[in-house]
Specification:
Low-confidence stretches: none
Distance between the termini: 10 Å
Strand content: 25-35%
Number of helices: 2
Radius of gyration: 14 Å
Largest sheet: 3 strands, antiparallel
Mean pLDDT: 92
Number of domains: 1
Shape: globular
Length: about 100
Amino acid sequence: MTMAKYEIIDHGWDNEQYFQGCGTACTPFDRVMTGVGYNAKEAYNDAVEQLYMTEDSAAVARLHLPTRPYGLRAKDKVPAYAHDECWWYVSIRYTL
């Protein structure tokens, strides 16, 4: 059985029209999920929820994703002066 691995990427906030997305080219990972929210914690939880909706629950459990990842905080949020189309983005690259 191979070891499942992951990488959490905090992209920060950006306008939804300009966010470039996140891919797996030139990385050791073969899949990626990107979550969006008003803050970093909400975006991370959205990415984890997408993982559970897309993949087998047992396979996702093997990733051992943290419930409170280092560096992602609810106070890291889209500033009040930003437009309505701005979101915080967090991606999880992974291999099962």
